[in-house]
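Q: My labmate handed me this sequence with no annotations at all. I'd like to see what the chain might look like in three dimensions before we decide whether it's worth expressing. Could you predict it?
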Amino acid sequence: MLVFKVIGEVNLLLIRTLIVSFFALSISGCSWLYGEKGLIRDREYDYLNSKMEKTLETPPGLHPLVDENDLKVPDLAANQKQPVLGKDLDDRPPILILASGEKMGNDSEDNQTLPQVWFRYDEIEFWQGIQDYFAKKKINVANKDLENGIIETDWITHTHDSYWRYIFGADDNYSERTRYRFQITPNNQGTEKVLRVSQLEKQVKKTRRKPWSESEVSNQNAILFMNGFLGYWSENEDKQATERVKLANLGIKLEIAKDDNGAVVFVADASFQETWSKLAVVLPELGFALDDKDQSLGVYMG
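A: Here is what I predict for the chain of 302 residues:
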């Protein structure tokens, strides 16, 4: 009986040791498996340490290879003299500016440094649309300069809850906050204006207890924020167009009355343009034959 008891205690100790070892490996992450010193080494960025090898030597009696530079690589632009490499390289696809409004489009000037669109809407109406969008999204305005066409947002905060927070209650949720500027300026075309959007500041906080730290701003984020407003504007524009179609399909209310001279007239409860366009349909239904019309005089002749 003593032998079985000792063997049982040894097995229990072995199981406990294995559990503790596995738990320790789990906590330490996968550095023992992946990494510079792991069993499996990631070679994705080995090219950063590559060096030029010796020129290929041609054996005696053979003609050496002649390199022909058929496809010349263009020189780097001034802002690409020190390009980012490796893990610092942003491999995300570019984000398109969704300028889908009826009187707007992408501004394709080569010297532009900020995302921008041109538009032919009334500037005051467009400016009000920006403020209405901020109000809908509950975004506070930090600065507004009507004279220079500038409106800047207050901090817009986004918090990304961690998966482990829901399981263990860990305090490792990630937060970021940003500020943006909208600016409306005249374009080279006299009838057009330009809307530019820039990300003024960005700060991140890896946990709730850590302070905010500065982070790099990018045009990618500015385009995403701009697209949010452009989508809002386009949606409202579609709603207004739908309402105009509905109104156009409705009839106009006509009442018989007398003018100052005692002549019988029709009184329309509608605008002049709406009344003028619909009279061409209404009058024939009332038995009037139309031969000519003059909108400047507001006259249909039959």
